[in-house]
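Pasting two entries for a bug report.
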Amino acid sequence: MSAIVLVGVPGAGKTTVGKLLAKELSLEFFDSDQVIESRAGKSVSDIFTQDGEPAFRQIEHDVILELLDSSNVVLALGGGSLGNDETRAKVKGAKAVWLIAGLAQAVDRVGMNRNRPLLLGNVRGQLADLMAAREPFYKEVASIGVDTSKLIPSEVVTEIVSELKKLESA
């Protein structure tokens, strides 16, 4: 099975759903931000402030390409990773699942999380801007879209599994 990639805005539930989906399908789970932090020995926020966003985006791209070469994995991508054309092209070759979250839901989930450097300050306004800018990328790569706004994580997993089965039989 090729990699299953979860995309969406911060707060869409990529990590939570990804862990449950990997368990359901007996696959290994990776969160690109967590892999980056482990390799860099510092938080995403620290990479942004100490090294700058371009340095972070390069590390992110390298990590994602490496993880996408693995099979039998579920991979949750950082919300902005698809801004890189090469990353986006590679994700198109995987089974990409867009976790669609409404603004209110995403804001509630993200809250005042200081580990999200692009959302400091006016969280609602920043998140609305990110959603508008990134939605075309999510639409471009997604094989499956699941609206998570009225579902609990286990229901999202059930929906993804059902949609994956439809893809495989098509």
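Entry 2 (this is the one that rendered wrong in the viewer):
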Amino acid sequence: MKIQEIAFTCYPVTDMERARSFYEGALGLKATMDHKMDDGAHWVEYDIGEGTLAIGSVTGMNPSQEGCSAALEVDDFDAAIAELKEAGVVFNFGPIETPVCHMAFVRDPDGNSIGIHKRKSNPDFASE
């Protein structure tokens, strides 16, 4: 098997309307696919650059505060953090600065962790 790329990342959600309000409102994402299935499952995708972030209300997929997280690269880290704070979004940790980036992690309405990230153009690596 040869893996070529990550096809998508998905966050399980319990209330699609509430989740979409967060992802499309607080994060400003635009839905590129919205699919309701016959079994009651509901799947929404957001294309971001070459990747796709999905949210799904699907039997067998449950939100978790301890699960994986995706980090979204932003153009203006400070402005993004200010917007999220103004919107009352819950921060899990940060903002922090590392030698290579700035980042913070927020929670969606189901408690899933989502990173807000900005790479540094000239990372400051410690010399060995």
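Dev reply: Rendering is fixed now. As a check, the viewer should reflect this: The first helix runs from residue 16 to 26.
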